[in-house]
Amino acid sequence: MAKEKKIRIPLWIYPSTEEKLQKNYEADNCKSPSEFIEKAILFYCGYLASEEYKQYLPNVVVSTMQGSLDAFEDRMATLLFKIAVELCMMLHVTAATNEIDTDTLSRLRGLCVEEVKRLRGAVRLEDAVKFQNGDE
Fold first, then answer.
1. Which residues contact 30 (CB under 8 A, 6 or more apart)?
2. Which residues make Cβ contacts (< 8 Å) with residue 136, sequence separation at least 6?
3. pTM here?
C-alpha cells in the first residue's frame, strides 16, 4: 500500500461527524484527518470480512476450546482433591503429634502467608526445615 499513489475523493459528512474526526484523529496518532479516515475504512472493511466467516469459525473454535478446557478442568479438579486429602492427613498427623497454642498458630499462619506470597507458591520442605533449624 505504501507504493500506491493516493487519490482525492469527495467526502460528504455531517458536521457532528467532522467534529468527532477533529477530536479523535490525533488521539489515534494520525498525522491528518485523512489518515484517520483511511484507517477507519480499512478497519471497517476488515470487520465486514470477518462477518462472512462468523457463522462457521467461532463455532469450531469454541467447541474445540471448550473440549480442551473441560478436560483440563477435570484433571485439575482431580489433582486438587488428591492434594487436599494429603494435606488434610498431614495436618491431622501434625496436630496429633505437637502441642501448638493458638497464638503460635496465628503467627505461623501470618508467616506462611507472607512466605507463599514471596515465593509465589513455590514452597519447599527443605526451606521450611532450614528455617525451623535456624539455618536461614
1. 36, 39
2. 127, 130
3. 0.43
